[in-house]
Amino acid sequence: MKESFLHYIWQFRKFEGATSGQILLSDEKKKIQILNPGRYNQLAGPDFFNAQVRIDDQLWAGNVEIHSKSSDWYMHRHETDAAYDNVILHVVWEDDCAVYDKANLPIPTLVLKNKIPTTLLHNYRNLVEIQKSGFINCETSIAEVPTDRLEHWLERVYFERLEYKVTQVQQKLTATQGDWEAVLFQTLMRNFGTVINADAFEELAQKIPFKTVRKLARQEQLEPILLGLAGLLKARLDSQELVQWKADFDYNQKKFDLPSAIDHQVQFFKLRPPNFPTIRLSQLAMLYTKNDTLFSSLMNAKTRDEIQNIFKVETSTYWKTHFTFDKSHTPRSKYLSKAFIDVLIINTIIPVQFAYARARGLDNQEQLLMLLASIPLENNRVIKNFEEILKFKKDALHSQALLHLKTKYCDLNRCLQCELGNYLIANA
Q1: 12: closest CA among 116, 157, 108?
Q2: Which InterPro entries does the record cross-reference, listed alphabetically (predicted)?
Q3: Number of domains in the chain
Q4: 141-147: long-range contacts at Cβ-Cβ below 8 A with a sequence spacing of 24 or more?
Q5: What integer pLDDT is reported at residue 29 of this predicted model?
Q6: What is the mean pLDDT of residues 108-134?
Q7: Under 8 Å between Cβ of 206 and 391
Q8: How many angstroms separate the Cα of 350 from the Cα of each of 134, 163, 184, 206?
Q9: Sequence-separated (6 or more) residues with CB below 8 Å from residue 369
Q10: Is 164 part of a structural domain of the chain?
Q11: Angle (nearest 5°) at CA 331 between 325 and 332
Q12: Residue 31: strand pairing partners
């Protein structure tokens, strides 16, 4: 029996007599009454802190340790760890040996093997332990979860995902010594690089102090610096414009004491032309060149339309007839698409807005939820699979939550930590 299931059984008192006030018997025939199961601890140390248990006529307050077998106490070397000195109850599935405390007295042991309802045990094994080859463990039963419970859990899961992104924002804030504009620039650069060039673009952003970015943008010199640092001005320069870009890069690279190139090599392979690094770097340079107050504009923007309008920029003139340096095509404008801007809102604007509001002691959760809900459902394989088994609102709030649910719960078999899995185990 997996310990994670026993943790669930103990935490939610899913065993016979746990909630009725009924007296249970330990292995030593002591009478046990569970008053408080304690606080679940997922870090080092006992599994539950500050439990309250009445053993015979004595009220005990302390920690509870849970194992599949009693002998696991010794296998895990708890007898030599002072963190386990305050364990008042040992909860096990199978009692295969006596366990003693440092005073050489037996630790009361509660055996759960015959105290778990048969239906609950069957539901758990059917959901978690039986190996499945489908999309997720509960794909044939997830539709049974009540809508209000599903909505509540997906909102909570989304904020888990957002907190992860906010942690990355805060790490950048520390690295830039509290420069929010630099944080936005680095986060935008990473997401302009998409998956293929994310690391290269972020390194590029980190190589240029933001005060230099601001100066270059005002002088309309940011584009050649970005292209040059990315190693893209080494190609054959067959126009006066490219020759000038190379001269501008050489001059500003020395003036601002910038490196000659980044370590990462930008990639074109597996990218559609609109995502080529040449196009994305030009669009980002134009974004900063045309908006001297980008950070404040984005932090104050509340709706999708406002943000879409801020990002309504296209490449510089050269890229109207090029995707790369070596081939030209008939002139066409290359604006940031609405779909790409939506990705920037999800992965850049919302996390930075959330972190920035928190730093100022403000709560903008509801505003951000409304913003996310105004963005159309993302289109990818994971979401398509969920659409086949579940009804949910077609917006980015739900697609982001479902992506997090799949990667952080379903793929890791964490049904016991999932509110949907908990419901199905208790009600299937």
Answers
A1: 116
A2: DUF2851
A3: 2
A4: 141/424, 141/428, 142/389, 142/390, 142/420, 142/424, 143/389, 143/390, 143/391, 144/424, 144/427, 144/428, 145/420, 145/423, 145/424, 146/423
A5: 83
A6: 88
A7: no
A8: 33, 11, 11, 21
A9: 155, 397
A10: no
A11: 100
A12: 25
The C-alpha atoms of residue 54 and residue 87 are separated, in whole angstroms, by 14
Helix (H, G, I), strand (E, B) or coil at 92: strand
User: Confidence band (pLDDT; 50, 70, 90) for 9?
Assistant: very high
**Closest-CA residue to 324 (of 250, 244, 243, 227):** 227
Cβ burial of 174 (10 Å; 0-12, 13-18, 19+) is exposed
DSSP assignment letter at 28: T
Q: Are residues 356 and 253 in the same domain?
A: yes
Is there a domain that residue 272 lies in? yes
What is d(CA 390, CA 395) in angstroms, rounded to the nearest whole number?
Answer: 14
Determine the Cα–Cα distance for residues 28 and 8; give it in Å rounded to an integer: 24
**Phi, psi (5° rounding) for residue 65?**
-115, 140
pLDDT higher than threshold 90 for residue 317: yes
- Asked if residue 122 belongs to a domain, the reply is no
Bridge partners (DSSP) of residue 66 are 91
Pairing assessment for the beta strands 109-111 and 87-94 based on DSSP bridges:
parallel
Find, among 339, 324, 365, the residue nearest to 156 by Cα.
365
Residues 110, 180, single domain; the answer is no
Pick the closest to residue 143 from 342, 373, 388 (CA basis): 388
Nearest Cα to 399, choosing from 423, 379, 424, 419?
A: 379
Tell me whether residue 380 is exposed, middle or buried, using C-beta atoms within 10 angstroms of its C-beta: 0 to 12, 13 to 18, 19 or more.
exposed
Name the token pair of 126.
Answer: 């059917």
The burial of 105, by beta-carbon neighbours within 10 Å (0-12 exposed, 13-18 middle, 19 or more buried), is given as: exposed
Would the pLDDT of 131 be above 70?
no
Write the pLDDT tens digit of every residue in 82-102: 999 999 999 999 999 999 988
The chain-wide mean pLDDT, for the chain, equals: 94
Six-digit token string for 35: 């008053």
Same domain, 13 and 108: yes
* Amino acid code (one letter) for 178: G
The pLDDT assigned to 135 comes to: 94
Q: Give 300's Cβ-side CA count (13 Å radius).
A: 6
321 and 190 fall within a common domain: yes
| Model confidence, pTM | 0.87
